[in-house]
Amino acid sequence: MLCDIIKVTFRDHPTTIKKRFISVFFMLFISPCFLYVGIHNKTFEKISMFELMGFKTHGLCQAVVMPLFLTMILFLGPIAMKVHSGLLKLYTEPMYWINNLKNLIWLRNHIVAPLSEEFTYRSCMLPLLLQCFSPMTAVSVCPLFFGVAHFHHMQERIKYGMDFTTAFKIACFQFVYTTIFGMYSAYLLLRTGHFMSTFIIHAFCNHMGFPDLVEVTTYKREKKIIITCLFFVGFALWCLLLNPLTEPTWYYNNLSWYKVK
């Protein structure tokens, strides 16, 4: 990002976060320019620029609810862990939301990062790739750019004392799981045609974080078995429901926008 080129600071420092917010603001205007220049002219005979990027009202409610529900099924195990720990009670407290809306880190993780990353790497990049590749190839290629972008965190970790090998391993791990997530997000955009479907699941996944598998080992035997089973059941149900719950006709998405020859 722009502020990384200017200066490397602690990523959670308020000054750094504010600088990145400014960078994101400018990128929201720059990214669509590349899409507009690179997309086939005939595309705009059938669809507007905003619709091409996934901004439309038809099917919006479904695009928010169904992908989120699908992703919650995938996170059945981690959600059960939150229920077990009592963390879900926090979500019913108004002050929890009020305080978080004043927290720059929370705003970055739940609003600004999902907004900027989905807009750039999915809404603006995927339509360009769909001109050159088959849909599933584009879905596989698009997240690679998203995954590689996370290697810039290495610079900060090394600056603050982490050895290169450890920083590189962490970056590789981030690359793998962010690329896998990116494939899922790109697939949702392909199927639903809605930016909101990608934004909402990105915010949700950022909130949940990577499942804490070590915590599962600390549970008593009965709870450990139940939680472990929920991990597998959630994944199995997600696989079964992925296509049915993303049926394009539900979202008024005829998929014609990527079939321009």
Automatic annotation (TrEMBL):
GO terms for molecular function: metalloendopeptidase activity. InterPro entries: Rce1 (IPR039731), Rce1/LyrA-like_dom (IPR003675). GO terms for cellular component: endoplasmic reticulum membrane. One of its GO terms (biological process) is CAAX-box protein processing. It is found in: Endoplasmic reticulum membrane. Keywords: Endoplasmic reticulum, Hydrolase, Membrane, Protease, Transmembrane, Transmembrane helix. Its EC number is 3.4.26.1. The chain crosses the membrane at residues 20-39, 60-81, 128-149, 170-189, 225-245. Residues 104-208 form the CAAX prenyl protease 2/Lysostaphin resistance protein A-like domain. It holds the Pfam family Rce1-like. It is a multi-pass membrane protein. It catalyses: Hydrolyzes the peptide bond -P2-(S-farnesyl or geranylgeranyl)C-P1'-P2'-P3'-COOH where P1' and P2' are amino acids with aliphatic sidechains and P3' is any C-terminal residue. It is an enzyme of class 3 (hydrolase). PANTHER family: CAAX PRENYL PROTEASE 2, PROTEASE U48 CAAX PRENYL PROTEASE RCE1. Belongs to the peptidase U48 family. This is CAAX prenyl protease 2. The gene is GLEAN_08733.
